[in-house]
Amino acid sequence: MTDEELGNSDKALAASLEGEEAGKDDLAKGPYRMEIDMRVLDHLGIHLYSNAAAVLSEAVANAWDALAENVTISMSNDVIEIQDDGIGMNLETINDRFLYVGYDKRKAEGERSQPPKERLFMGRKGIGKLSLFSIADNVTVHTRRGDERHAFQMLTSDIQGTWNTGGAYVPKPVEFDGPLKGTRIVLCGLKTRRVGITESALRKRIARRFSVIGLKTERGDTFNVQINGKAITHEDRDDLKNIEFLWELGSERINTAVECPKLKLKEVHPSIVDDGKGWIVKGWIGAAARPMDLRADDAGSMNGLVVVARGRLIQENILDRLDFNKIFANYVTGQIEADFLDMQGWDDIATSDRQRLIEDDDRYMALIKYLREMMYTISEKWVTNRNLERAKDAIAKQPKLQEWIDQLPEGQRQPAQKMIGLIEGVEMEKEADRLELYRSGVLAFERLKLRDETSKLSNLKEMTAEALLPLVGDLQALEGSMYRDIIRERIAVIAQFKKLVDDDAKEKVLQETLFRNMWLLDAGWERATEDPTMEQTLKTEYKEFADGLDEEKSKGRIDIRYRRNAGEHIIVELKRSKRVISIGELMDQGEKYRTALIECVQKAYNLPTPPHVELVFVLGEKVRADAEVVQKSLSALNARVMYYQEMIRDSEAAYAAFLERTEKADAIDAVVKSL
After folding, report:
1. Domain 42-227, classified CATH 3.40.50.740, yes or no
2. Where are the domains of the chain?
3. Ordered DSSP codes for 206-221
4. Which residue, among 395, 444, 402, has the nearest Cα to 424 in the 3D structure?
5. Is 245 helix (H, G, I), strand (E, B) or coil?
6. For a surface tag, which of 80, 288, 527, 595 has the fewest beta carbons within 10 Å of its beta carbon?
């Protein structure tokens, strides 16, 4: 830059500073400035929230902060109304607080409301009001405070029009039609896709998002919410009715006689997260009798731990973040109340939509550590107590089992009970299969006289076939005796494939059988679970997974299915056995599948980071490329290829070897008995 240019720059800066001193223009107080485009509202409101439950939760939280005692929500196909009996708003409050995006309530008004209620404010960011536009294009507000009455209408189209012209958005005044006290919000022009929720589902979701609804606070304050004239109660959460084991944190607060009709055992555990900082939690963790008791209903899956702070949900499910992979996790539901996550003097830990937490915050990491340790502690107790309870259930159904236990030596009775409980807890489609497993277990127990080694039953941690096999496998003589029949059945399943000559018949059997026996594809997928809702979403909303594609688009596909296993999301696609496919075609399909699956899973589970996904293509003919090239190419997508014949051969070999070893063990046992 020349001296002349530098001189001109200095003059420009001096002129700017003179303008600041003269107060000519607030936007010209220096040579630099930052402006916020009105389109930021599009991201903070219209597209930030994806469902009606999250939006109406913001309205309920605002009513709480407005000191309302009653909130009524009325829903129809065309209109949603939210009305509260709070303090309402005057003109100053409307302009300086409600219409001011980013108003920091706690900074301006403190952490609590004034006596006598002294409520901890839920709001913080000042953007929750924008959530209304994510489900409605027309928002009308009627509010009254004292003698002041105000009503105005806001339209998405008008707000978007302001993006182009700049300046402030000016809502349109309308005729007042509000309550005698408080605020009434009317939502019209509903976005049906986001509002497509039943009253029952909304009731459950609102109940699960707040811990203060229908209950008296510490100061005797009440807060009630109604939907279409019916009050939401704590029972609407619907997550305690199937609880079999319950661990309350800090103190007993749940009326288990009313809310937990299936409860068999309850304990109270410490609630201190960090003693030095005074961080504590409240709430509870429960275990259902069966994973299916927590499966997705119209309000979503209950398998998880929600986190609540200041009486409202702050994280949808923290269980997925605990790196806790024991089978116990499939049975868990609960609510963690951690007010220290949202306390005075600390940074806001919640993300913009208040559904998740910032994960590198000290408070979050401390909570993760506490919950992980708690889960390991209670999972050990759960295994022991569940087996004993299951043994009682089994004996009640099969009294002969008690007769058998009674004739055992004293030292073998408790291990025998735990073995029965373990078998009773295994998920099975047919009770006849369970009875067969009982017979095998009793015969193994009797034949081998487990004596000293039966104490191992007390330490068994998993309720799966793989975990049970070592139990009956004391030394070489015991290995596999309880589950040989199951292994033989698996070999019989594999043998069916060998006998099939006609490719079309083979495909039909594979289509019907393979997805019921995921162990054929991967031994680690013994407990891979279905998620019909997710699979339907994929096939409906993502054309890559749709049924009925033409030959070219499907590339010879027979069927495609979604499974979930230990936090991994899996797509398995079966190809026609005679279909010859190139690596280019596989890569093209794999990229589309991976992208669509990640997007769908992130939306469904509200994940902040991409989930771990795996793609499996099952083929009949070799890919037209070098095997090493195929492997390296697909590994970039975390995808792999399996071939029908190799799958059959490998599975047969693995289980045949197992059966051979156990038959030798029985031969040894027979020799020993004959001596």
Report:
1. no
2. 1-34, 42-227, 238-382, 494-652
3. HHHHBSSTTS--TTS-
4. 395
5. strand
6. 595
